[in-house]
Amino acid sequence: EGGVVGVDMEWQPTFGCISTQRVALIQLAALDQVFLLDLCVAGFCQHPGTVSFIRSLFSDRSIIKLGYGMSGDIKCLLATWQQLLEEPLKMEGVLDLLKIHPKIQRQKINRPQNGPKEVLVGEGSSEKGLSLLVQQVLKKPLDKTEQMSNWEKRPMRISQIRYAVADACCLLEVYSVLSSNPDQFGLPSDLRSIMSRQSEKRGGKKKNEEKSCDKEECQGAQRVSPPRSDREKGLLCGEKPSEDAPPLPPQHLRVVCDNMLQGLGRYLRCLGVDVIMLENTDDHRVAAKLAQAEGRFILTCGQPYQTLRSQVGEGRCLSLDCAEKARDQAAQVLRHFNVQLKHCDIFSRCQVRKLTLFLNVFIK
């Protein structure tokens, strides 16, 4: 009983229009041991004992569960086990290091003037997400070479196993450093207090929102990065915008559309959104460069999502269903970013007749 466990998960990268991501491997790091739960082993995933263990682990408040961007992992757990939808998974003792990463980045107190310069996500560093946190706290790199590998193929390669172990172990190492000197990182002396606040926020959600998590929600499961403003805070947490949150005018939404979503880009541009569209000959990496340089969100679909997400940081890339029409894709984007449209937002070059039905949905 008690203790701290580093939790990480791996799943098969999505290709084409696959709408679900089922967990293939769960890594649990504790003290000097790492346990790999291989959900691809025949019969292991659906064994009653496996599901029971997951419930017991996440509901035990005496065990601190460390993760980074755990909202995405949990959504994919729900896609893996239907039982966790029918009887919602109880979350206790979970500490998402992603939620405290912004505090670490902003901390300048007690740093010597000749010390290391503060590094923000997307600014002057090729590292993103957990890799950046490890770099900042442990002063060492985290190899993400195997991130895009086939996690459902068996047997796993030695390099995959090493990657999986390192991803879970580094969470314990980061927690150890933060706990030993919290003042240096601008954190409270008892990190458990942060964990309590995170639990309270989760508990405050509406029950119908909790039950609405289904398999389709695992497509592009949003792991979050530090929000650049309070307006972006909700959406970057992978949650629906709060009903009382200020709506976002379309002119304030800045996106770059992958060349597979040019129809969506034209649609959003007609609605007043600040859109850059890639040319047919542009490499997908151009989208990442534009997003980093101009602070834009990336809109993409299919296979490029995994690569782009790793390049721009968690929460800055939205994956859409490439089988949907541009109008339906645009509706999803506007809802996701809580954009409120007005008639004056429509550009004069648009064919307003084609947008009438669309506007009736979004304009009060």
TrEMBL record:
<dbReference type="InterPro" id="IPR036397">
    <property type="entry name" value="RNaseH_sf"/>
</dbReference>
<dbReference type="Pfam" id="PF01927">
    <property type="entry name" value="Mut7-C"/>
</dbReference>
<feature type="region of interest" description="Disordered">
    <location>
        <begin position="195"/>
        <end position="249"/>
    </location>
</feature>
<feature type="domain" description="Mut7-C RNAse">
    <location>
        <begin position="254"/>
        <end position="351"/>
    </location>
</feature>
<dbReference type="InterPro" id="IPR052408">
    <property type="entry name" value="Exonuclease_MUT-7-like"/>
</dbReference>
<keyword id="KW-0540">Nuclease</keyword>
<dbReference type="InterPro" id="IPR002562">
    <property type="entry name" value="3'-5'_exonuclease_dom"/>
</dbReference>
<keyword id="KW-0269">Exonuclease</keyword>
<keyword id="KW-0378">Hydrolase</keyword>
<feature type="compositionally biased region" description="Basic and acidic residues">
    <location>
        <begin position="198"/>
        <end position="218"/>
    </location>
</feature>
<dbReference type="GO" id="GO:0008408">
    <property type="term" value="F:3'-5' exonuclease activity"/>
</dbReference>
<dbReference type="InterPro" id="IPR002782">
    <property type="entry name" value="Mut7-C_RNAse_dom"/>
</dbReference>
<dbReference type="Pfam" id="PF01612">
    <property type="entry name" value="DNA_pol_A_exo1"/>
</dbReference>
<dbReference type="InterPro" id="IPR012337">
    <property type="entry name" value="RNaseH-like_sf"/>
</dbReference>
<feature type="domain" description="3'-5' exonuclease">
    <location>
        <begin position="4"/>
        <end position="179"/>
    </location>
</feature>
<dbReference type="GO" id="GO:0003676">
    <property type="term" value="F:nucleic acid binding"/>
</dbReference>
<protein>
    <submittedName>
        <fullName>Exonuclease mut-7 homolog</fullName>
    </submittedName>
</protein>
<dbReference type="GO" id="GO:0006139">
    <property type="term" value="P:nucleobase-containing compound metabolic process"/>
</dbReference>
